[in-house]
Amino acid sequence: MTLATIAPLLISGAIGAALLGVISTEAMIEFVLAAGENPGMITFGAMFVASPIQWLTGRSQVRVRKYLGIMFFLLALSNAAMFVLETGVGAMLSAPFLIAGTIAFALATPLFLTSSRRSQRAMGMKRWRSLHKLTYAVAAALLLHVILIGDIGPGAVLITLGFIGRIPAVRRWLTSRAAQRRDNVRHIRWRTATAVSQAPNVRSDRRLNVY
Fold first, then answer.
1. Does residue 138 contact residue 104 with C-beta atoms inside 8 Å?
2. Measured between alpha carbons, how far is residue 11 from residues 81, 136, 162, 192, 205 in Å?
3. Distances in Å between the alpha carbon of 76 and those of 35, 47, 85, 93, 128?
4. Which end of the chain, N or C, is less surrounded by CB atoms within 10 Å?
5. How many domains, in total, are found in the chain?
6. Residue 114: enclosing H or E segment and its boundaries?
7. How far apart are CA 196 and CA 198, in angstroms?
8. 199 lies in a domain?
9. Range of 110's domain?
10. Helices in 58-116 by DSSP H: which ranges?
């Protein structure tokens, strides 16, 4: 979560530097485009793989997913804005990889706008969950985007792992591992509690033997 914050901060600094005249607009655009592409993919991939991690560990990743989702959208927004500023709106549909990226950004927008608890309450959890299943479509569009570019990086690998983790058989295996881990922890705690409860008796027996 901390690492996901670095790229937006750098982008904000570059935009501020351009507004102050420290760097040129062209340099700012190039920097923001570079800072938004791969970090954005990695951030989304980390968010997408968080659910399989939750099934494996048994620990809630809701806060992590929400934070990473917001960071991803901010990176995607900055990337799209700089691209439009450099080439114009029409260029966003000028090539297949750009169309895939535009679709991913468009589908991610309602997810960002409804990421708050207030939106959950207003929509109801059932409708909110149905809407946020668009995450799968965003993931698929992002994968297509980088495949068409020919730049398969860590973000694409994480997204792929997220899809693999959602295969029913894999999900059952992950949840069974989590259940097994919980049983092991309970067993260790039970053995520890039993040993502690028996310890005073052992000491008393030793004292009786001494005296």
1. yes
2. 12, 27, 27, 51, 70
3. 10, 14, 14, 16, 22
4. C
5. 1
6. none
7. 5
8. no
9. 2-166
10. 62-87, 96-113
The residue ranking higher by pLDDT, 90 or 159, is: 159
- Would you say 178 and 52 are in contact if contact means Cβ atoms under 8 Å apart? no
Q: Distance between CA atoms of 43 and 132, rounded to whole angstroms?
A: 17
In this structure, the number of other CB atoms found within 10 A of the CB of residue 77 comes to 18
Cβ-contact 78, 36 below 8 angstroms? yes
Tokens of 22: 């420290």
Can you give the pLDDT at residue 206?
A: 46
pTM score of the predicted model: 0.79
Most distant CA atoms of the chain, gap in Å: 95
Q: For residue 85, what pLDDT band results from cuts at 50, 70 and 90?
A: confident
Q: Is 187 inside a domain boundary?
A: no
Q: Are 44 and 142 in contact (CB under 8 A)?
A: yes
Helix, strand counts (H, E) of the chain: 10, 0
Tens of pLDDT along 19-66?
A: 888 888 888 888 888 877 788 899 999 999 999 999 988 888 888 899
What is the rounded distance in angstroms from the CA atom of residue 46 to the CA atom of residue 68?
Answer: 7
Q: Does the residue 184 lie in any domain? A: no
The tens digit of pLDDT for each residue in 146-171 reads: 999 887 889 999 999 999 999 999 99
Task: Tell me the one-letter amino acid at 70.
Answer: I
Residue 17's Cβ-count burial label (10 Å; 0-12, 13-18, 19+) is: middle
75 inside domain: yes
**Mean pLDDT confidence for 104-123:** 91
